[in-house]
Each structure stands twice: as C-alpha cells, then as structure tokens.
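@channel anyone free to eyeball this complex?
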Amino acid sequence: MNTYRLRRLVGNILFYLLLGIFVIVIILPIYYIFLTAFTSGDKLFTKPLSYLPQTFAIDRFRAVFAGLPILRYMFNTVFLASVSTVLAIAVSLLAAYALARLQFPGANAILVGLLASSMLPGSATVIPLFQMYQRLQLMDTLHGLLLLYGSGLLPVTVWVLVSFLRQVPIEIEDAAKVDGAGFFAMMWNIILPVIRPGLATMFLINFIAGWNEFFIPLVFARGPAAKVITMALSEAQMIGSSSQFHADWGNMAAVAILATIPVFIITFLFQRQIVEGITNGVFK
Amino acid sequence: MAARRLLLAYALVAPVVIWRLSTSVYPFLRTFYLSFFDNSPVRRSFDYVGLANYVAMTKDSNVTESLSFTVFFAVVSVLLQITLGLGIAELLNQHFHLRTLVRTINLLPWAVAPIVTGAAAVWAFNQDYGLVNDIIWRISGHRPLWLVNVTSARFAVTLTDTWKNTPFLAVIFLSGLQGIPSEIYEAAKIDGSNGLRSYWYITLPLLMPLIVSMAIFITIFRVLSFEIVYALTGGGPGSSTSLLSYVVYLQGFRVLNFGYASAVAMLLFFIVLVIGVLGFGLLRRAWNRL
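replying in thread with the prediction:
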C-alpha cells in the first residue's frame, strides 16, 4: 500500500512539474513582450534580464501612434478579416447547399477540385496575381485584398459547410416547401438558424487567420491605404532614433501587443468554439 | 423542373467556382507558363527560354540550400512537434484544477500571428539581451550565438516554429484522445495492463491515422512556411535557413525576376504534390492496419 501511495505522489509531482514547465514556456515569451513594451528605453538593455516590471512607460505606444497610421492599419485589418470571412461564408453556403442537396452532374468534380486547389501554394499563384493586380489597378485597394483574403478560405469553408448541411434533416426543408417559401427565404429562415453555431465557429477561426495575415498584404498593399497591423512591426523599428545600433525593440513590442491583444481576447472568450473550429477543419 | 433545378445548382456554385478559378487556378497555370520565360519588368523582357530557368535552379545555391534547410526543418519539426503535441495532449487530458484555463493558455501561441512570433524571436534569440540566452546563461553560464551559425540558426527557426505550432497539434491530438472510448482502457486494466503499456499498445495505434495525417500536414506547412524565416533570419546566414517560398518572394518582388521566381514556385508545388501523394498512400496503409 505504501509503495502505491509513493508512486502516486511521484506521479503527481512529475505531472505538475511538466505542466508547470509547459505553462512557463508558453507564457514567458508573451509576458516578456509586454514587459519590453512598458519598459522605458534605457532600462531595456540589461544583463542579466530583469523579469519584474521596472517602469510602466507608455511612451512606446505614444511613439508608435504618433509615427505610424496605426488606427488606419487597425481599421483595415478588422475590415479585411471580418468582411472577407462573411463574404467567403456567404458564397460558400450557397455552393455547399447545391453540393449537399441538389444532385447535379459535376458536383463531385467541384468538391474534389476545390480541395485540390487548396493544395496550390500561395507562392505558386502570387506572381501572376501581382501582374494581374497591377494591370487591373487593384494594388493597394481594400477590395482587391478582400478577394485574395476570401479566396483562401473558400475550399475548407465549402467542405465544412457541406458536412454541416448533410446533418440537417431534409424533412424540415420539405415543410418549408409546402409553405411555398422561396429558396432564399428557406435558406434564411430554415437552414441558417440550424447551422448558426457552426457558422459562428467558422467566423471566429477565419477572423483570427485574417487578422494574422501577412504575406498577402506584404505583396499587394504597399501604401498606407490598405496596409494592416502585422506590417507595422518592421515599420515600428524605424521610428524614433533612440538607438541607432539596436533596432527599436520597445516600439516593436508595442505594435506586437496591439496586433495580439484582440486575438487573445477572442481566444479567452471563445476557447470552446475555437477548439471546435480547429477540430472541425481537421476531422471533416 | 429538372432543368430549373440544374440551373439553380450551377447558379449556386458559380460564385465560389469563379472566385477560385480567377484567384487560384488561373494564376497557378499562368505561373507554370511564366516559368518557361525570361520575364522581368526591369529588363523589360518577355522571352521564351525553354527549360533555362529550371536548369539555372540546379546551380543556384539559394535554391539548393533552401532545399537542404527544408529537409532539416520538416524532419526536425515533425519529430519534435508530434512528440511534444502528444505529450501536451496527454497533460491536458488529465483532471486537474484550472484545466480549462491551461487549455486556453495552450491556444495562445496558435492565436499569435506568425510574423509577430518571428519578430519577437529575433529579440528572444539576441545574444546579449535575449530571453533564450538569459535562461541558458542562468543555467549554464554560457551565451551561445544563435543566428550567425548555420546549425544554431536552423534550430532557432525550428524551435520558434515549434513554439508557435505545437499547441495546434495538441488540440487535435487531445480531441483524438477524447474520441477513444474509456471502456477499452477499462478492459485493458482488467487484463493487468496500465499506464505506459496501455498507451503504447492501445492509445498510439488508435491515434496512428491521425498522427500520420498530421505528420503530412506538418511537413507540407513547413515546406510552405514563410513568415518566421522572413522575420527571424532573412534566410541567413547565407541561405542556410532559407525556404523556397522565401526564394520566390525575393526573386519575384525584390529582384523582379518573374520568370525565374515562377520556376522556383513550380518546384515548390511539385515537392508539396509528391509529399501529398506519398503521404496519403502511407495514410491509407495506416488505416488498413486498424
């Protein structure tokens, strides 16, 4: 009996030790970015590092807001992430309905083709898109970026929605048809309420992905009109001449926080839905 | 009636199909076409050169070194991330206080933008003032150089990527663990099997299809990744931490060598295709074993 207790104790200690290491490895770098952003310049470069806050200086944030059109970037980011997601879900829902419910020639080919097209790397499409965007004057425009943000979401969104719709019993639609409801009325009043939780989950996942996007705006947004918050990171290094040899880490940390807080808030509020969304994308 | 139904079906799928054709399929075919041209706005050239771009790639150390780092990055990442992902999933599957909070904390690296992770890693791997070296120094008294040596720079990229992406994998594996009915373990307990034995003989085999498919995805995502290399090392030292998508970016948008960049992009596509085909063959075998 004693050896059993001892083994359980050792097991418990080992478990909490590993759990502690895991949490520290995740939290410490994030905590350190916060610390850096709120530490005034002369206190930043110390050896060894200090892990307790020494100052609560907000001059980094002031410098960043003064030196860069941060609010414009934030607006662009929110706009692109949310509108591209809504648009992608809307058109995907229409397609998914046809693919799940209406037997028509070519349905399977479209499903497989969508999945295959999702395997095409962004690098393998970006150069012709760049030339196209220059010719069509879509560079530096939010609607141009919107098309590219949304495009990447379509294949998985269609696939997941098809699997949602197949779980909706067809009888409830028949009831609507007896009522003589038109197609869009039926979608809006019957289908949408049933799959709304699934849609909310998809919105969250795609919003976070859109918020974090960097490659597309790097290539297609070169002026402030369409730039996003992830692009402000390298720009933040340039402003302020506090240190010529060290890139200005404090300013960068301030931008990193501005770029991260919104997604962290979403993650804490919607932990359950996000996990569901991640697993939906993989298992369906 | 049938015709109306057909018309409705095509009208419903049309937006998605047109959207994908114009922003993905057509540009991809056009990349393939461009890869046979010397096309540069700087030289104002658009000349058919046959396979010259592909031949040039074999002699381009940026490409060959990128390939060598791609192999390192993919192999080390798969090993590290699968092992750690399974371990973290097991931790998060236990009963303990604040479990929900820890599961949320696990999601944080997933939620941080890759470019933010890469930029923060530059600071973290700084020799004198970085977080990583501060901890190593407190333990061992040494401050290793990270970003100037080939091997250590490669590990710096891989470790940063592991920090960022393992939690996602842990979420997938956790949900895989939760899908295993507890009766199986109870039956094994009666047979005198427990702990590590039942993990090895029950859990792992049941998770194997999931592990294999995740290994394929990890490999493909490593081959395609861009941001962490862009922010952390810029491909250096030399091209020792460069990846093909980074070469495409440099050749396409810094050097403005569209034809050559397209050829590199096709190589990238071909690699992903081969991994996908081989990988899913492996996956079918893993399923059949079950």
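from a first look: The two ends of chain B are 46 Å apart (CA to CA).
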